[in-house]
Amino acid sequence: MEIKKSIDKRTLTVQIIGEVDSVTSPILESSLKADINKIDNLILDLDQCTYVSSAGLRIFLAARKQLSTDDEMTIINASPSVMEVLELTGFTKIIKIDKK
Prior knowledge:
The protein is an alpha/beta fold. It contains four helices and five strands; from the N terminus they run ββαβαβααβ.
């Protein structure tokens, strides 16, 4: 997994490349924790993310919980297979998702 981050004003965009699983999720967690208190908006770009396991979903949920209630988290560009996981687990009800 590779992570590319950019901050524009108080919006952090995180591009995830590859798989988010039990091996790589601690890396993502560390990367998000480094910036989460400095932002008002978090965008997870999953255009090149090929797989998200339950460990990865836990990291997404933890990031959402760390943002204040007024802050926004959005998942963008999820592939059909990743989108299916997000829908089956109910993430579409708790995190804003912009479909491809």
